[in-house]
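Final report, closing paragraph on structural work. Over the funding period we assembled a curated collection of sequence-structure pairs, and we close with a single example.
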Amino acid sequence: MKYIQLNIPATEKEKIEKMIKELTKEWYGKPLIDNVGHYLNKSAILYVDALLNAFLDRVYEVFAKHKGRSDELKGKSIKSKLNDFQNKNLLDKSKISNAKHVEFIAQLRHNITHCNGFVDVKFLEECGIKNNQIQGDPLWDTNIWPDINSFLNNYKENHQLSLAIEKVIIPYLRHAVEFIDEFVNQILTII
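Its predicted structure, as stored:
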């Protein structure tokens, strides 16, 4: 495949780059980052979230068919789908240790999708932080971030989400797989 080489003077290229950055700043309120790896890590989170959502939909479809039910899951997010399972007495989230971790994946996905990956107050509240205090059981993995300060060092308001491959992507991929194992085992006890 051939690429077209444009002979644009350097000063003109700088103007175009500046215009693009300003345009994205207008759309998102903040300039986009230039870190390609960060975009790949965002994609990984979006993909894992999509797989988990599809898994929950499919499991419910199979379960409903097996039980002669015609209803569907009402929720669109992982958290609301898990709540649907729990409300239908098909799941006890408290017995699935990785349930909160897949909810964290869903929060990351929500933030990437709706806030361009910038941490906001709603994200922190959903993770269990209000007014810089932990509210209940934190949503994050306390083996990675043992306390609120270590978590807030990586997830500061108005800063990009931390999606470090060694701290977030690989551990949360593992949590997603472990969640599926735990979830299936619990569903099989009901059937």
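Residues 58 and 111 are 25 Å apart (CA to CA). The helical segments are 10-28, 36-66, 78-87, 99-115, 121-126, 148-154, 165-190. We thank the funder for supporting this effort.
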